[in-house]
Design goal:
heterodimer, A: 254 residues, mainly alpha, 10 helices, B: alpha/beta, binds adenosine-5'-triphosphate, binds magnesium ion
């Protein structure tokens, strides 16, 4: 097993021993359960409410884990000085970053799978049809989470935890808004406002592209080409951020 | 062959405020550690010991100067396979058990699974943590953490071992064990470079020492050489049946004269006056009981250098003697 693998497996082991993650996943289960109650209250569209809320719960918890664990992933190692002995080993700083990232990605994959299983079980219990589109939505959610993790990791290589959290949250929100904003100013005359929106659009991740929850909840599948393209976009974006994180990390003093 | 060579190593930490000058933690530090020796890196708190060690391991980049370890530039990734490092007051992954912890470091060092398992057993025994092998590090005492840290540094049987204050936090038995461990490493041909501010540890086991103050190497050499070259040794002479009272010769030579009954203790500031004094004792028909040269200890040297560094004597004045 290469050095990246050793780091990744250990990062995964760390998260397995972290009770907060269990609590968050449990919380997602509760939210999914709550969706059943809400569905009972609504007069029509029982199915849609359950599917909607379930997907939203998985997404929310996934993003929260990605953001907070992503930020602390490397920061915590520096603050707690556990990094000294690791970096004194024959492992490059980039491999360390990548190992930590893949370890968290593995953790998220497991968490998402558990939440998905709870979700599917709920759907099955309440006789909601399980559409393939639901799996598509969760797939793109996972890609989004990979991007968010990379964002968090990137910021945490050069700023404090608090600032990283603010930046990551900011970028996440903007990432969901840029497409809309751009559409809004598309017809305007141009000028500075439009230029800024354009800049934001090209610089920030277009996370809305990875959000197909709405259509998925009503059973409308996305085209396979779209799935591939959107996934590729997300993975590429994460890759660029990781490269940036490695470059920044390379120059740091501990 | 030199295992560690630093040339004019300097490090300034940015002050964090615009306009305020950076803090100079290391200021042109040059030293060499030879293969197979135990080198003690001595200095008071804040002298720059940890900073030097961090530069050697590539954790921190020097502002200027050069450092070579095992012939390769400091921070070279592949060379670290041959180096073991214990940071000061070790912080480790506390969610791992002792054996998982050592296994992790074995794997990071590129050992095979089989070798790792075997080394983990050996090292747990060596540092006396066999009982605690399945306990999580969060439940370890400070001394136990120090021990597991040492085991971690040695798991891959490195040629060069760099330890930052390895005896801190240990009880007297633990300190002795670490001293013995360091000596046994040298017996097996390893090079040990360790920092400390405890003089006693250095005097007991080091082949050579370097003393660092305010980021500068102020003395460097074998313990006995440093002590000899630096201080005017005092000499204690004990004799009987002589009269010291009113003896101007004796009082002009001695820094202290203690008469107790028949016996008399005379302290001379340097060995130079011994012959004259002994002549005087003979002349009076007294009897010479003992002549004891008082060696200045490393501690004296340490305080002497500390005083000089505090009074900011220019570095070249002091280090001229150090080389
Ligand atoms: N990251 C940093 N930023 C700013 N200053 C630092 C930093 N690290 C160390 N220093 C300063 O550099 C000087 C040397 O620190 P260093 O840790 O090397 O001392 P030391 O000799 O190891 O001391 P001790 O015996 O207390 O461990 C200190 O004055 C310290 O405040
Ligand atoms: Mg120190």
């Amino acid at each position: 097993m290469g050095a990246i693998g050793v780091i990744a497996v250990n990062a995964f082991r760390e998260s397995l021993r972290d009770k907060i993650l269990y609590n968050l996943v449990l919380f997602a289960g509760l939210l999914i359960g709550l969706s059943v109650l809400l569905a009972d209250l609504s007069i029509t569209e029982h199915h849609k409410v359950i599917a909607d809320m379930g997907l939203a719960a998985i997404n929310l918890i996934g993003v929260i884990i990605a953001m907070f664990v992503g930020i602390s992933l490397v920061n915590k190692e520096i603050e707690r000085r556990t990094i000294y002995t690791i970096m004194a080993r024959p492992i490059s700083r980039s491999f360390f970053i990548l190992g930590k990232y893949f370890g968290l990605a593995l953790t998220l994959l497991v968490n998402m799978s558990v939440m998905l299983a709870v979700f599917l079980l709920t759907l099955w219990l309440y006789h909601v049809p399980i559409e393939p589109s639901l799996f598509q939505a969760v797939q793109l959610m996972f890609v989004e989470i990979l991007v968010v993790t990379a964002i968090a990791l990137f910021f945490s290589t050069f700023t404090s935890s608090t600032l990283s959290a603010i930046f990551t949250l900011g970028l996440y929100v903007i990432g969901h808004l840029t497409a809309d904003l751009r559409a809004m100013v598309a017809n305007s005359e141009g000028g500075i406002g439009k230029a800024v929106v354009d800049l934001l659009y090209y610089l920030c991740p277009n996370l809305e592209m990875l959000n197909i929850k709405g259509q998925a909840a009503v059973g409308v599948a996305a085209a396979p080409e779209y799935m591939i393209l959107a996934s590729l976009y997300g993975v590429l974006y994460a890759g660029v951020l990781l490269t940036g994180a490695c470059l920044v990390f390379q120059r740091r003093d501990f | 062959m030199d295992d560690i060579v630093t040339e004019d190593l300097s490090k300034s930490y940015p002050s964090g405020w615009p306009g305020r000058p950076p803090f100079v933690a290391l200021d042109g530090l040059s030293l060499t550690v030879r293969r197979g020796e135990i080198f003690g890196f001595l200095g008071p708190n804040g002298a720059g010991k940890t900073t030097t060690l961090k530069i050697l391991l590539g954790l921190v980049r020097a502002t200027s100067g050069r450092a070579l370890l095992l012939g390769e530039p400091a921070g070279d990734v592949a060379t670290r396979r041959r180096i073991g490092f214990l940071p000061e007051s070790p912080y480790f992954y506390d969610y791992l058990t002792a054996e998982e912890f050592l296994g992790f470091y074995g794997q990071l060092a590129g050992l095979s699974r089989a070798v790792t398992t075997q080394r983990v057993d050996e090292l747990l025994q060596l540092v006396g943590l066999g009982e605690a092998r399945t306990r999580q590090l969060r439940k370890f005492s400070k001394g136990m953490l120090q021990r597991i840290g040492l085991a971690q540094a040695l798991i891959h049987d490195p040629e060069l071992v760099i330890l930052d204050e390895p005896m801190t936090g240990l009880d007297p038995v633990g300190r002795k064990q670490v001293r013995d461990l360091i000596l046994s490493l040298r017996d097996r041909g390893k090079t040990v470079f360790f920092s400390t501010h405890i003089l006693h540890d250095v005097e007991m086991i080091c082949d050579r020492v370097g003393i660092v103050m305010k980021g500068r190497l102020v003395a460097n050499g074998r313990v006995d050489e440093l002590v000899r070259q630096d201080h005017i040794q005092s000499v204690e002479i004990v004799c009987q049946h002589i009269k010291t009272e009113g003896n101007t010769l004796i009082h002009s030579l001695a820094t202290r004269v203690l008469q107790q009954g028949q016996q008399c203790l005379i302290v001379l500031p340097s060995p130079d006056a011994v012959d004259t004094l002994v002549g005087e004792i003979r002349r009076q028909g007294g009897r010479l009981l003992s002549v004891t040269p008082h060696k200045a200890s490393l501690e004296d040297l340490f305080f002497h250098e500390a005083a000089q560094a505090a009074s900011r004597v220019p570095a070249h004045v002091i280090s001229g003697r150090a080389s």
